[in-house]
Amino acid sequence: MIASLSGTVLKVGLDSVVVGVGGVGMLVHTTPATATSVRLGQPTELATSLVVREDSLTLYGFATDDEKHVFETVQTVSGVGPRLALAVLAVHSPDAVRIALGTGDLVALTKVPGIGKKGAERMVLELKDKLGALPGSAGQAEAVHLDTGEAWREQVREALVGLGWTARQADDALDKVAPLAADGAGVSALLRAALQELGR
């Protein structure tokens, strides 16, 4: 098992990064928030989870061990694979996932593309006591500062489309969260705000 990676960022995608480790470029799938938090050419360290299939070895990376723990635990639910588990973390912070599961908040869980009401109910039933104690409040999304004025719009739009929303739905949500960008909100916070708008 590859539990973590430390190296230089060679490439940054929308939901993946390539980390150079000992002369080898390792492709790591991440949430959009984690991808935007690293910088090309700079050192980084990611907690990782290796998913082994008959025809593939896929590496998933996380900013914290807690994200990795939630990612791996969520997959113990029948029907939840690594891509859906990653989508959960793209929409909610680990603490928000704990709160949703602990309080049976199906609305919050079904905001994740790919999770319907029955899937959310199954997650609550199977995971309610598996992720630890509920925090006092939902974790604050980490601030990711924007490099240029409207750069956030394209990043968040691509993330929403990648998660299953149509381009038109994404654009409508972007218009609604634009004031937050003007106030200095980071890409991660803007993505979560847009997902909340789409979930209404």
UniProtKB/TrEMBL annotation:
CDD domains on file: UBA_RuvA_C
Output the superkingdom of the source species.
Bacteria
Subcellular location(s) of the protein: Cytoplasm
Chief place where the protein resides: cytoplasm
What are its GO cellular component terms?
cytoplasm; Holliday junction helicase complex; Holliday junction resolvase complex
Q: InterPro entries from the entry?
A: DNA_helicase_Holl-junc_RuvA_I, Hlx-hairpin-Hlx_DNA-bd_motif, NA-bd_OB-fold, RuvA, RuvA_2-like, RuvA_C, RuvA_C_sf
Supply one GO molecular-function term.
four-way junction DNA binding
Pfam families assigned: HHH_5, RuvA_C, RuvA_N
**Annotated stretches, region: Domain III:** 151-200
Q: Which GO terms describe its biological process?
A: DNA recombination; DNA repair
Asked whether the keyword Transcription is assigned, the reply is no
Q: Which residues form the Helix-hairpin-helix DNA-binding motif class domain?
A: 72-91, 107-126
* Annotated keywords: ATP-binding, Cytoplasm, DNA damage, DNA recombination, DNA repair, DNA-binding, Helicase, Hydrolase, Nucleotide-binding
- Family membership, please give it: Belongs to the RuvA family.
Q: What does this protein do?
A: The RuvA-RuvB-RuvC complex processes Holliday junction (HJ) DNA during genetic recombination and DNA repair, while the RuvA-RuvB complex plays an important role in the rescue of blocked DNA replication forks via replication fork reversal (RFR). RuvA specifically binds to HJ cruciform DNA, conferring on it an open structure. The RuvB hexamer acts as an ATP-dependent pump, pulling dsDNA into and through the RuvAB complex. HJ branch migration allows RuvC to scan DNA until it finds its consensus sequence, where it cleaves and resolves the cruciform DNA.
Quaternary assembly: Homotetramer. Forms an RuvA(8)-RuvB(12)-Holliday junction (HJ) complex. HJ DNA is sandwiched between 2 RuvA tetramers; dsDNA enters through RuvA and exits via RuvB. An RuvB hexamer assembles on each DNA strand where it exits the tetramer. Each RuvB hexamer is contacted by two RuvA subunits (via domain III) on 2 adjacent RuvB subunits; this complex drives branch migration. In the full resolvosome a probable DNA-RuvA(4)-RuvB(12)-RuvC(2) complex forms which resolves the HJ.
Q: Fill in the domain comment.
A: Has three domains with a flexible linker between the domains II and III and assumes an 'L' shape. Domain III is highly mobile and contacts RuvB.
Q: Supply the HAMAP family for this chain.
A: DNA_HJ_migration_RuvA
Q: What is this protein called?
A: Holliday junction branch migration complex subunit RuvA
The top of its lineage is: Bacteria, Bacillati, Actinomycetota, Actinomycetes, Micrococcales
Tell me what gene encodes this: ruvA
